[in-house]
Every structure is written in structure tokens, then in C-alpha cells.
Amino acid sequence: MSSHCLGKKKKIVILGGGFGGIYTAKHLEKLFSKELCHFEIILVNKYNYFTYQPMLAEVIGGSLGIYDSISSIRSLLKKTTIYIRSISKIDVENKKITLSPNFEHTDLTIEYDALVIAIGTVTDFNNCPSGIKEHSLGFKSLQDAIQIKNRIIDIIETAATEESPKRRKELLTFVVGGGGFSGTEIVAEINDFCRKMIKRYTSISQEDLRVVLVHKNEHLMDKELSPSLSKYTEKLLRKRGIELRLNQSLESATPFSAILNNKEIIPTRTVISTVPSNKNPLLEGLPFTFLYNRIMTNETLQVQGFTDIWAVGDVAAIPSPKSKRIINPPTAQFAVREAKVVAKNIYNSYKNIPPISFSFKGLGSMASLGYHNAVVQLFGHIKLSGFFAWLLWRAVYLFKLPGASRKTNVFLTWTLKLLLPQEPVQLKAEKVRGIEHLHFNKGEIIFNKGDIGDYLYIITKGSVAVLKDPNSQESIATLGPGDYFGEMALLSHTRRNATIQCLEQCDIVSLRTEDFHVLIDHLPILKKELEGTKQKRINDNVRQLEKRFKK
């Protein structure tokens, strides 16, 4: 090593591998290309890939493969040190970042001289109505897109062999909450994908499919598009068979239904909620100023009150040049340009050059509506819709997609999808959770007599009735918070011997049968308690039968 490269390197640490983080690192690599023996660029991200989020809806619809929307971070950043780990703590006082353990029981600490926070926001179900968190699918990441696509295929495969027309229609009902960009694009892709798939099944008709979009405002994408393009979108979706519930919202969800704020109950097994984002928990307790749960910066993207910390992307509240009270929107086109300014200002700070201010008005908005259709609004006044808007949508995003190999792959995939039929194959790699938190509405049946014993249920809120015969509504017992049920079928390896119906809204914790047996096999006291409860309930049933016989 030459003498001028000796000594401790200054560390520029970037947290997050989204648009803001990746493009900040790319620009830093160029600016410090001749000085990397004095500076080390570090990027920390939970996954080793960058997700091109504008294309995630096409993954659900099958226009793109799972890997077409992601790029390897290492292929994009050749001169950056990359840590693929979760972040457990940001310590701005001691200028340290703590990373979570990987395969060991010890964490890892990284010191920094300059810090760029680009960790984005998180999906926030906490402020959603009851049941939305427990029984809806979110849409923010590649994992979410895979989960939604798997659910759709699962639903259609199950419906294909369902004998009950009523239950088949309930299975094939999909409810999407939120009519912004994400919700509108998802509902269009789901509708197209399902209608193409069910053509392969003789037991399912197009009339069995029901797709519903619920939006709290008067028009779809009303914050992003002009009224004329919003109305065009609504007309097109209705023409394709999608039901629109405008000026309405999801009030609740259960395993069997979506409940709207007008008390309409839509029987369904699939609810997708494009819930609002919230502040990343890593930022809690940090001495930053926040606006709308985003870190306040100045015009140079420097975090207020700090000279060595910058913020970009969704996590940053960056003032607009038009007004100090207006902040820039959290979109990809802004994040990419913010990253360039941040990189330049970090470089300038080490060269004693005055920082530059961020100024960008935005180019416009685009939304894909599936089946060779889109809406585009450029520079505020240029409006396009239909097939040519769809071609422009694809051309723009293909051009913006990072990496020549990824561009080629996506172009070839799009071309082949136009010529060849889709193969709806699932990729089920996720581990099934043993414990689930469930929410049920008043009057709903949790399970019926004769159903298989697959879960143990523990009531945390509300009450249920134990019915011997659901048709007569004769109650054997009432159970409340702290009580459990379902253990008899699991212990005896038999079917349910009663029906459980909610007397009010209930929150319940469920334990899968496999995990239930692991617990009782290793906890004799628990097994003894459950066996005692089982015997007591058998004795209660015998006594009730004896009373009826005497009468």
C-alpha cells in the first residue's frame, strides 16, 4: 500500500437500500473515486437487493417475474462496503450504528464520520380499525407482492374444487382498501390476473369473480392526478368489472369478511390494505425534529441541528423551494435527485466548499391500469391515457431501472409475456407462524361442529357462545377473556364437537395444532390442566343430558 493511503479512513455510512440510499452511494463512489484510500463508503441494508417499487404491482399481475423487480446491491455498488444486516440502534451522540446479530449472539458496531439516513418508513397498521392488522395483506415490499400473488393462486385453486356456489363466490371476492397509486394499480393487476387464470378452469366462471376497491375520497388518485384522469380511471375500472366503493372506507376485517364504514359486509377471504406509512421505530428517542413523522432537514438535506447527518427519501421532510411550510413528496423521482445533492454536499463538506440547495418541482405522475392501459400527467398540464400512456409508462420505468442487465431482462420478460401465456405458479417460501392474533365480528362463527381440530383458541377480548347445535342456537356455555377453547379436538385427535359463535367483537390468539402438541409434550403441567378442562366439559355435557332425560 502506498504511503498516502496509510491512516484511518473516514467512514461515510448510509442506512437503507432504497432509492435514496442506493443512489447516494452511487454518486459518492464517483465523487470519491480517487480518494477511496482516505474514505470508506458503507451501506447497511436488511436485504442484499434493491427493490424497484414502481414495478411491484406487475409482479402480482404476472407481467414481471419475481426477480425482475430487484437488483443485487453488490452489482450496483462496486466500491461500497455492504453490510446485510438489520439495524438495532442509531447512536448519534457517540456516532455509532449497532447492527443485529447474524448467526451469532453478539451484535456489530460501526462508527461513522458522516451519516446518511435513508431507512424510509414502515407499514403502520396500529392506527387502523380492528381486524385490519390481523386479517389484511399489506403492500410495500417484494415479500408483500409474493404473498399476495400466492394468496390469489391459492384462492383460485381452492375455488376450482369448491362445490358450494356461495362459498366459491366468497373465495373469489377480493377487497382492496385505498384508491391511491398503490391501491389502484394493485386492483387493476389482480382483476386482470384473476380473469386470465380462471379461463383455465371449467368449474369457475367470470361471474364468480368479484373485485372491490374501497376509497375514502370522492375520486381515485385524487391527490396525484387531475379530475379528468381520475374519472377516466374510474370509468375504465368499472368497465373491466371492478366495483368501486367511493367515499367509503374499511371499518373492520375478519377471516371471513370486510366491513365498510356504512356497515356493508362483504364476504371475502382476501383483504388488501394500502395503509399509510409511519415513522421507522429506529428513530424513536433520537434528538431530531419531526414533521409528519419525517426528519426535518434544511434545503441542503442536512438534518436540523447536526452537521454530520443527512436524510433523504421517505424518511426526510425536506422543505420545498416554493414555501418553508411545504415539504417534498416521498416519491422515487425526488429520492433519486435528493441522493445526488446529499452526495455532493458530503463531498463539499470535506473540501470546504459551500453546500448546494435541493430544488426540484417534479416531472409528473404515472399509473399503470393493467391490460395495456395507463394514465400519465406530465409537468402538470400534459395528460395522456390509454395504450400510448401505457407504452410511455413502460419506456420511462425501463429507462430508470438501474443496471443494463436488469433492463435487458425486464424488456425480454415483457416481450415474452405478450407472446406466451402466463404460468400461475406459487413460490411459498415463508414459514407459517404458529401463533396468530385473530379478530372476529359479532355473530361470526369461529368454527362449526364437525370441523377438523386445527387450532387452540385463547380469548383476549370479547365473549363467545358454545353451541351444541348452531341451527337451534342453544348455548352450552359462555366463555370470556382468559378462557380457551378447541382443546378437546386437539387432545382427542377428533373433529369439533360444538360450534363457537362470537357474542360480540372478539380478539383471539390461536395456536396451530403442531405447536400445541409441542407445548403439551414438554410442559406436563399444561397438559394436565388441559386434560382437566377437557374432563370437566365432558362431565358438564353429561349432566346436561341427564337433566334433559329426566325432563
Explain what you see:
The chain folds into 3 domains: 3-46 and 85-121 and 279-351, FAD/NAD(P)-binding domain; 132-276 and 365-419, FAD/NAD(P)-binding domain (3-Layer(bba) Sandwich), CATH 3.50.50.100; 435-550, Sandwich (Jelly Rolls), CATH 2.60.120. Helices cover 32% and strands 27% of the residues. The protein is built from 14 helices and 35 strands. The chain has a 5-stranded parallel β-sheet with strand order 5-2-1-9-21, with helices on one face. The radius of gyration is 27 Å and the shape is globular. The protein starts with 9 loop residues before the first strand and ends with a helix. The model has no long low-confidence stretch (mean pLDDT 87).
Spatial strand order of the main sheet: 5-2-1-9-21
Number of helices: 14
The CATH architecture classification of the largest domain is 3-Layer(bba) Sandwich
Taking the sheet with the most strands, its summary is: 5 strands, parallel
Structure summary, number of beta strands: 35
Q: Which structural class fits the helix and strand makeup?
A: alpha/beta
Strand content: 25-35%
* Low-confidence residue ranges: none
Tell me the domain tally: 3
CATH topology-level name of the largest domain: FAD/NAD(P)-binding domain
Helix share bin: 25-40%
CATH class of the largest domain: Alpha Beta
State Rg.
Answer: 27 Å
Overall pLDDT: 87
